[in-house]
Write a structure and sequence with these properties.
The structure is a single chain. The protein has 256 residues and is mainly alpha-helical. A four-stranded mixed sheet has the order 2-1-3-4, with helices on one face. It starts with 8 loop residues before the first helix and ends in a 19-residue tail after the last helix. α5 runs parallel beside α7. The chain is globular, with a radius of gyration of 18 Å. β3 and β4 form a beta hairpin.
Length: 256
């Protein structure tokens, strides 16, 4: 069980409510793709903080992110990009920036060094280990010429087992605490990809409970992710033709 110092539940809940009902006036733009897990994670946080912004949908299938104009915002030509008077890419960096600037006192990104380290760990875990295995198995075969293999499935199961172990050790309701933190958003949008392809979570009861609890307790935020999941479900049955992209890394899917 995590030490009580991390979880002052009454104060935490009051603080979360406080920040959820603050509206910020900002000339902010978010360049996002409608079914992209990193984009959806950022959009959920913006919703949670009630930050006003302009959503700029990037048409991935049309290759809008591959243009030289887009590269001026993000030389990596990846999505999302936040424009808040300067351009910021990488969804984890965006999540951390939004908390530091707009909700510095919120327990969603705690100031306590150990509690914040745990949140940062979960963000890094998703970025470097969890989402790559899920993306390679669930997403890449939908959009590009890759196959779902037993090896890929094994990597997904290893990732889920690892996440199960983390949740088992902390015994927390959410990914890094007994309350919502920014670590939950990218992890939820990763697992969302598995739900979209009907990948079962029954072998991982803590992961499944955490995921269902997030949906149940954060309905308005889940609505954002759910819309993306439904798009992925559609593309799973109707893969898009991306041969025109001439992607430098991923081979075009040969559609029948």
């Amino acid at each position: 069980m995590m030490q009580n110092v991390y979880f002052k539940s009454v104060c935490v809940e009051k603080s979360l409510v406080k920040h959820r009902f603050v509206t910020f006036a900002a000339n902010m733009k978010l360049y996002a793709v409608s079914d992209g897990p990193p984009s959806l994670a950022v959009r959920m946080l913006l919703k949670a903080l009630n930050i006003e912004y302009e959503l700029k949908n990037v048409d991935y299938c049309a290759g809008e992110h591959m243009t030289e104009e887009y590269a001026k915002m993000n030389p990596q030509k990846e999505i999302p990009v936040l424009d808040d008077g300067f351009y910021l890419s990488e969804s984890n960096a965006i999540l951390q920036y939004l908390m530091d600037k707009y909700a510095p006192e919120s327990p969603m990104y705690p100031k306590d060094a150990v509690a914040r380290a745990l949140v940062n760990h979960r963000l890094c875990f998703n970025l470097a280990y969890f989402y790559p295995s899920i993306s390679a198995y669930a997403m890449a075969p939908i959009f590009f010429d890759y196959e779902r293999t037993p090896y890929g499935k094994m990597k997904v199961n290893m990732s889920l087992k690892t996440f199960e172990t983390y949740l088992d050790k902390t015994e927390t309701k959410y990914a890094a605490a007994n309350h919502l933190t920014i670590a939950d958003f990218p992890l939820v949008t990763s697992v969302m990809c598995l739900e979209a392809i009907k990948f079962p979570l029954d072998e991982y009861p803590r992961v499944k409970s955490w995921y269902e609890n997030f949906k149940r307790e954060n309905g308005s935020l889940w609505t954002i992710a759910e819309a993306g999941m439904k798009e992925i479900e559609h593309f799973e049955k109707n893969p898009p033709d991306l041969t025109h992209l001439n992607h430098p890394l991923h081979p075009a899917k040969k559609l029948k």
